[in-house]
Structure formats: C-alpha cells, structure tokens
C-alpha cells in the first residue's frame, strides 16, 4: 500500500495536483504562462483549459485547496437587472457550496489513492466534475458581468465583434440564439458562448446541471446561469425576462479578454 501514498509534497506537487484535477472539468483552467510555453499537441490540449487562471479560481497553494473569490463588485451593483438579495445568496451560499464540494472531492480522491480503496471512485469522480465545473462556471459568471456604470451591456468591438459576426452573422443573430438557448435549457443549467478550437469559431451551447452537454474541448467565455437560484426571487417563472436582463450587464470587455486568451493558445 505504501507505494500508493502521495509521498511528494510542496508547492510544485500541489500545483500539479490542482492542474491534474482541473483538467477533468468541463470549463477548466491553466495558468497562461504554462499554456504559452506549450507546443503542438500540448497547445491544442491547453486550448480547452485556457479561459481562466488558477488565481482567478482562488487556488491557495499553501493549503492546496480552492477558496471562494470575492465578487468583483457590490451585491447591489447589478440592480435593477439582478437584485442584491439574489446575488448575495447565489455567491455566498450556492457558489461557496461548489467550492466546498470541489475541495472535498479532491481530498477524497487523494484518500482513494492513499488507501487503494476505489469502491467509491464513481461517486467522487462525479462530485469532482459537478462541483469543479460549478466553481469554474460561477467564477466566470461573476467576472463577465459588470454594472452599467462600469461598461455593463456595452456591445463588443474589435476582434471579438468580428469573431461574433463571422460565426453568427451579426451580434443580433448571436444574441437571439444565445437568449433562446438559455431560455430553453431543460431544468437547471447554463447558456454558453464558447470558443471551439478545432474550427476556431464561436458556438452557442447549452449546459445541463453544471457540465453536461458541453462539447469536449470548447472554452466557455460567457455563460448565463439559468438555475432557478439565479433568478427566482425577482423573476419567478419568467426566465426569458431574466436572460434578457442579463444581456444588459454583460461585461463584453472581459469576454473579449477571455476570447483572446482562449484562441491565442490554441
Ligand atoms: Mn448558480
């Protein structure tokens, strides 16, 4: 059994474990510096993991676990489009729960390796995928919104505008498809705008729960959370009104930055 122990320790091991774990996620991340050094097939693989960094995800090297990053603005900053009470519960309770679940799954998978007892491997692997994706998705979600006073809803320009036109015809056609996809998610999930590195185009996708139905290899750069916890206090059953309001606070500058990161390493 002793050869199953994680005998190495220290920051480098922690970092490798973190990256290894996160490569399982649907919308995962690596540090851009590492991605920039990669070549050939490694670059292609890195493309799937480029939109966020470990720092974005609040990874604490010393404790070897993820922490909940603070909201990049006040709870009430997105009013009246998204209300403060929803933001507070969503971030402080729901997102915090995904971070806890991710750390727990990583710890339990470490325990599986230590003991060699893998009878619960399916359970903990699913927990890793669900909570890890939940953490990545919500980190991206907060980051890609902004108050009106800070550019929220101001339409994209430059490289991203061109990419949207090339992939969807026009921003209006993209917006129609994105809102329709978000409205129509069955149950709990997400509407996504994602970079697809094989054809180097943008796709609108749906996600169920936190990760299902997302195409392998795509890099999400914008997501609208359509779980009821994201809108029910203010919008009740009117999910379409919420998705429309979300468009008013999209931080397209940030989405453009994530787009550049995603396609520059692919
Ligand atoms: Mn959520």
Structure description:
With 266 residues, the chain is mainly alpha-helical. The chain folds into two domains: 11-143, Helix Hairpins, CATH 1.10.287; 148-265, Iron/manganese superoxide dismutase, C-terminal domain (minor pseudopilin epsh fold), CATH 3.55.40. Helix content is 49%, strand content 10%. The protein contains ten helices and five strands, in the order H-H-H-E-E-H-H-H-H-E-E-E-H-H-H. The chain has helices spanning 11-22, 32-37, 40-47, 84-115, 121-143, 158-168, 171-183, 232-235, 239-247, 252-264, and strands at 59-60, 65-66, 189-196, 201-208, 219-225. Strands 4-3-5 form a three-stranded antiparallel beta sheet. The chain has a two-stranded antiparallel sheet with strand order 1-2. A hairpin with a 4-residue loop joins strand 1 and strand 2 (65-66). Helix 4 runs antiparallel to helix 5 and helix 7 runs antiparallel to helix 9 (239-247). It is globular and about 55 Å long. The termini are far apart. The relative contact order is 0.16. The model is unreliable at 1-50 (pLDDT under 50). Manganese (II) ion is lined by residues 90, 94, 138, 225, 227, 229-230.
CATH 2nd-level architecture of the largest domain: Orthogonal Bundle
Topology pattern, helix = H, strand = E: HHHEEHHHHEEEHHH
Helicity level = 40-55%
Q: Kindly report the spatial arrangement of strands forming the biggest sheet.
A: 4-3-5
Say which molecules are bound, naming each kind only once.
Answer: manganese (II) ion
**Assigned CATH class of the largest domain:** Mainly Alpha
Which stretches are poorly predicted, pLDDT < 50 over at least 5 residues? 1-50
The CATH topology of the largest domain is what? Helix Hairpins
Quickly give the structural class.
mainly alpha
What overall geometry do the principal axes of the alpha carbons give?
globular
Average of the residue pLDDT scores? 86
